[in-house]
Amino acid sequence: MATIAVTSHLQAVGPADPLERPGNTVGDVIATLDRDFPLLRGYILDDQGRVRRHIAVFVDGALRPRDTVLSEAVDDASEIYVFQALSGG
Question: How many domains does the structure of the chain reveal?
Fold first, then answer.
């Protein structure tokens, strides 16, 4: 099972510690969080099911493009990190 973790900004609605979850893609793994963390999906995905602009997803240490990350294949050794991207001036 892949490991998924979220930053402290998302831990109010998501897991406080990394979790192992099944799935063949990043999207599959994120979907498994719905049962235990129903509010988290709305923070990660928009109403069209796309990764929100202010979210960054890293897979195995590399930032992945928002428009394709959900379909990216993962395996038992994969590590997924979901960050709330910060911006400002």
Answer: 1
